[in-house]
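Why this split exists: single-chain examples teach little about how molecules sit against one another. For that reason, every record in the complexes split bundles all components of an assembly together and asks for one structure covering all of them. Below is a record exactly as it appears in the raw files.
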Amino acid sequence: MSPLLSVQGVTKRFGGLVAVADVTFDIAPGELVGLIGPNGSGKTTLLNIMSGHLSSEQGTIRLDGEPCTGLKPQRLARRGLMRMFQLTRIFARMNVLDNLLVGGRALGLDAEEANARANALLEELQIAHVRHLDAGQLSGGQMKLLEFGCCFMRTPRLALLDEPFAAIHPTMKEIMSRFIRARHAEGQTFVLVSHDMPVIVELCPRSICMNAGRVLSDGATSQVLAAPAVIEAYLGGAAA
Amino acid sequence: MSGDVRLRREFIATVVLLVLLALLPLVTRDVYWLGVLVVSAYFAILASSWNLLAGFTGQFSLAPAAFAMIGAYGAALSAAYYNVPPLLGLLIGTASAGLIGLVLGRIVMRLRGPYLALTTLSFAEIARLVASNSINITRGDLGLPIEAWFNDRVIWFYVFLGALAFVVCGLYLLLRSQAGLFLEAIRDDEIAAARSGVRIVFWKTAAFAISSAAAGFAGALYAYFASLVTPELGLVQQTGLVVSMSVIGGMGSLIGPVVGAFLVYVTSEWLRDVGGWQLVIFAALVIVFARLFRTGLWGLITTALPPRRRAAGKPA
């Protein structure tokens, strides 16, 4: 099967620091891949390059066989690549419903379809009761759920989720996990960045571990987490 | 409250305000005060056009007065050199400001905050100096005379009020369409808007061009009222007044700049006797509103009103 996403030799430097070094991997349609690694390992930088928020110095990225290196985020969004950020990004002065409608209308849904889709998502994510509140008035967890929902106003071909479970209540974590499991069962493709290892183990059949900008290990999650290099990257000298 | 409901409420309030203003000639026919009301309406159009950029799209431009001046010169030059009738002159003034706004909007679209403000300020000063120094064409600081469209101040008052209503209706229709949704999204978070698929460059440029065209329209109309167009129309102090009116009235609301424009301009004329102190009073008011009441007078009024529908509460 040809890959949905193909990352080939991607490199990004910030001055003298090599944030992402010659990273190569493929993601097949319908995969749910965990992207793990210690802080500063290059996960978010790689996601920024994949979603068009940063340019790379070397390498190519293909989405469904078509080159998409250097495309702007809005063009990638229209090609079905959606991104959730580590630090929540929502439209704080717009109400919750309008936050969702922005993506729906921008991605080509008509007003009626967008409304129906937004309301269904709000119900599924259990934040329908705050749909008329300004998004800036929500709790941190509700904001995360809202941003998560924004990625699914049109079924994406690939969803890049950066730390969706960070600093949220277990109930909300469960709502998101259930959503991801259900969509994955329907064939949706995900890349999930998280430091929450139990969640990675539970959700992701495959994981890629990065360290110092490089891919340290790529394979079945249980094997990746058992690899000595991965253990050492996470625990440093203590593992030796 | 839903964005649509909020916008509709602001639109209805603006219509009510305009109807009340339309009754003023029944109270006074004083030529001086009618002139003050005409200029207030001119500033209300300018402040509303600037509010589309700063309040609804998050682009802090310092060139609204320059675009009004461009619109005024567009009308005056076409009348002086080609004997163009007023309606066509209005169209030329509006289109010239809109086209220049389109080009400038394209240039500044990647700039934000102080960089955008400084670039638009520089453009405004260049435009004013070009008008001032092109003596062979514009007569420089002597001003370019243009035949008045009407001589009756009451007629002028209703013409300006109609023009203001036209601009407010246009903005309302724009903001309640999906364009309004995208512009507000860009204002709140450009990166999140891009992630959602919003065409940032297109919408920011479009907002800049529409705002410039509306300012040009106000300027062109003002040219036919004042019968003389000078580079003073584009002074940065005029822009300062437009910003103050929007901040005091309430940025990011449809009605705020209209309330602010009438309140600030009428009060400043009323305070004319205190000389330079009127500027001190308005500068202090801007500081108070910017620091303590960021939603402006309209925000204060809506906070004081009882909510018509209570939204579900925020969880602990």
